[in-house]
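Predict the 3D structure for this chain.
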Amino acid sequence: MRNFLIALMISFTLLNVSASKANAAEVYEVIFQEISHYNSNAQESSWIAAAIMHAADTYKVHPLLITALMEVESRFNFKALSPAGAIGLMQLMPDTAKMIGVNPYKPLENIMGGTIYLKNQLNRFAGYGQYSLTYWRRTMPVRRL
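Done. Predicted structure below.
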């Protein structure tokens, strides 16, 4: 939960980049640059950015929120493994991955599964008033970069 809250805080900063209805290429570039801070392999960074954009489009979750969560969870490391047993880029627990029906060791399935789980959590907590993401997004001032 702590990591999720940190990801939300990071995403609020990143969401200001897209608040002006930035096009997909601009959002992709922001994501690619963020990944490149942690991963010097341009091909891997590009693949991760494209996978994030795909998952975001498929499950209607903002790509910068997915990026922020992934940054907090794994720092964009394909082989991340937590002491608690969380696996991969989105740090899926084995039972969660099994419940969602993905193989957490396959990077694309890990990203898609993590995005499905994130979408489920966003839906689950959507009715929590001022504690919901949609409340904060509606009330935050919009800045143009």
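Residues 16-20 have pLDDT under 50 and may be disordered.
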